[in-house]
């Protein structure tokens, strides 16, 4: 499955020096980067298999600068790719050769912490973990915690609707964002939501969260903060097969137990993580569950006993409960370091992201084994078992023959399997470019057209992050959003690919 990007506009490329000069007038000094070597740092994101240099990279510091950049690009028909920390695993922040890369990393301040209303107002460049660090002295924290939380920015979390190991109980980014300020492609500054619990009218905040940079550029985020639970304990549970572990996951949820986190790793991932972190994971099991319960101590103790009983009924060979905060943190350290740990045992890997109904875990795990044999590549499984969000890591060596092409095909087949059992293409990484050409596996043509009509309402020229999410880019006129006068389209040069 060869992934292509829109053909760059030769006219824009020819004006590169002029455009860089205009950007430097808006963001002077080191805020505008147009040297070939300096821009190399921005040529890719977390999906490093794909690389492309931007036309110019711009790092604004104020909302006025962001608005001015977007107004200029809108008037000059120049594409814009918003970028946070660049940790996207779906290619969502991959630059365009004829586009401005709008890097929001300088928006890195915590603007307000309101413990009375249990919320914080932050700029989009603040790291996910940085929010917790800003409020933990009063016993609060920010619940969504993707494994990349030490590096990923909250603006990127909003763009991808990121989750994490505790999203089973506490929700994804969408469940923890109360408001945003964003700038439209025309340079208009808009506020949605705020410190209040809910807003009137259409849920535009929900629409913007997970929109992957296609609708606007976020410049401020109001998030919900929670008080840390009285007690939190985790249990490591080993199983003889991945299928029995998957069945145990479904049984725990069916029993009405909602753990704070419920993660699963298979043998390759267990060994890689243990070699890297030394978390005390058992090496003689085929699958490992990490289940965390939190709340009042009596409730946690009771639920731990129930989870252990269910695990033993499903053939668990080992159950070990954390005996203190340090040990609980160590259990999670291994899981959160699984991605870099796997990077030590394979020259390259693709990290996939699909979501399935929990009851289909055994079937999908068995299916991935068959696909591994079909494509002659190994796979290590690390995923959010409680909500069925899979993260298979496909191991390959890009320097060998056709291994990258086989890895791409393997990943596409995994995602098709997810859809086949009633799941979806993504849980938290977004569609980006990675899953763009698989959108038709889930959505019909009418579905995709309706989604693009929403895009047209925010960005009529399709200048924000083009080439991402939609497999075929339709002009707004074709979708009935713009008037065609005497057979002439208002924007005849918009690319289609």
From TrEMBL:
GO terms for molecular function: FAD binding; oxidoreductase activity. Its cofactor is FAD. Pfam families: FAD-oxidase_C, FAD_binding_4. This is FAD-binding protein. InterPro entries: FAD-bd_oxidored_4_C, FAD-bd_PCMH, FAD-bd_PCMH-like_sf, FAD-bd_PCMH_sub2, FAD-linked_Oxase-like_C, FAD-linked_OxidoTrans_Type4, Oxid_FAD_bind_N, Vanillyl_alc_oxidase_C-sub2. The keyword Oxidoreductase applies. Keywords: FAD, Flavoprotein, Oxidoreductase. The keyword Nucleotidyltransferase does not apply. It comes from the Bacteria. PANTHER family: GLYCOLATE OXIDASE SUBUNIT GLCD (PTHR42934:SF1). Residues 50-228 form the FAD-binding PCMH-type domain. It comes from Plantimonas leprariae.
């Amino acid at each position: 499955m060869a992934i292509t990007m829109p053909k760059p506009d030769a006219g824009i490329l020819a004006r590169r020096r002029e455009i860089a000069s205009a950007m430097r007038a808006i963001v002077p000094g080191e805020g505008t980067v147009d040297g070939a070597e300096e821009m190399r740092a921005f040529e890719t994101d977390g999906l490093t298999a794909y690389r492309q240099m931007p036309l110019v990279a711009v790092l604004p510091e104020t909302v006025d600068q962001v608005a001015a950049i977007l107004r200029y690009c809108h008037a000059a028909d120049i594409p814009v790719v918003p970028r946070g920390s660049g940790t996207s695993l779906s290619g969502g922040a991959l630059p365009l050769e004829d586009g401005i890369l709008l890097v929001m990393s300088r928006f890195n301040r915590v603007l307000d912490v309101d413990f009375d209303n249990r919320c914080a107002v932050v700029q989009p460049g603040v790291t996910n973990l940085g929010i917790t660090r800003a409020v933990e002295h009063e016993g609060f924290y920010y619940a969504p915690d993707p494994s990349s939380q030490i590096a990923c920015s909250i603006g990127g979390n909003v763009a991808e609707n990121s989750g994490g190991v505790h999203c089973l109980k506490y929700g994804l980014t969408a469940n923890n964002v109360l408001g945003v300020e964003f700038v439209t492609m025309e340079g208009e500054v808009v506020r949605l939501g705020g410190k209040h619990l809910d807003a009137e009218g259409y849920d535009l905040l929900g629409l913007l969260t997970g929109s992957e940079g296609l609708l606007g550029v976020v410049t401020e985020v109001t998030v919900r903060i929670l008080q840390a639970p009285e007690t939190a304990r985790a249990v490591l549970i080993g199983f003889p097969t991945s299928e029995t572990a998957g069945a145990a996951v479904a049984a725990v949820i069916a029993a009405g137990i909602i753990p704070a986190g419920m993660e699963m790793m298979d043998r390759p991932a267990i060994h890689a993580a243990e070699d890297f972190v030394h978390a005390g994971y058992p090496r003689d099991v085929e699958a490992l569950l990490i289940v965390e319960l939190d709340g009042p101590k009596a409730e946690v103790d009771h639920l731990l006993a129930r989870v252990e009983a269910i695990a033993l009924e499903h053939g668990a060979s080992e159950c070990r409960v954390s005996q203190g905060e340090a040990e609980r943190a160590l259990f999670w350290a291994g899981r959160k370091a699984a991605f870099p740990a796997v990077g030590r045992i394979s020259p390259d890997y693709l990290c996939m992201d699909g979501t399935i109904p929990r009851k289909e875990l055994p079937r999908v795990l068995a299916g991935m084994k068959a696909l591994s044999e079909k494509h002659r590549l190994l796979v290590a499984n690390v995923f959010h078992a409680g909500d069925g969000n899979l993260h298979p890591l496909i191991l390959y060596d890009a320097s060998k023959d056709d291994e990258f092409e086989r890895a791409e095909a393997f990943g596409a087949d995994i995602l098709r399997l997810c859809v086949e059992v009633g799941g979806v293409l993504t849980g938290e990484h977004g569609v980006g470019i990675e899953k763009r050409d698989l959108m038709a596996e889930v959505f019909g043509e009418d579905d995709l057209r309706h989604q693009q009509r929403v895009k047209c309402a925010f960005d009529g020229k399709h200048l924000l992050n083009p080439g991402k999410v939609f497999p075929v880019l339709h002009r707004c006129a074709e979708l009935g959003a713009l008037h065609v006068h005497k057979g002439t389209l208002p924007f005849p040069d918009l690319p289609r690919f």
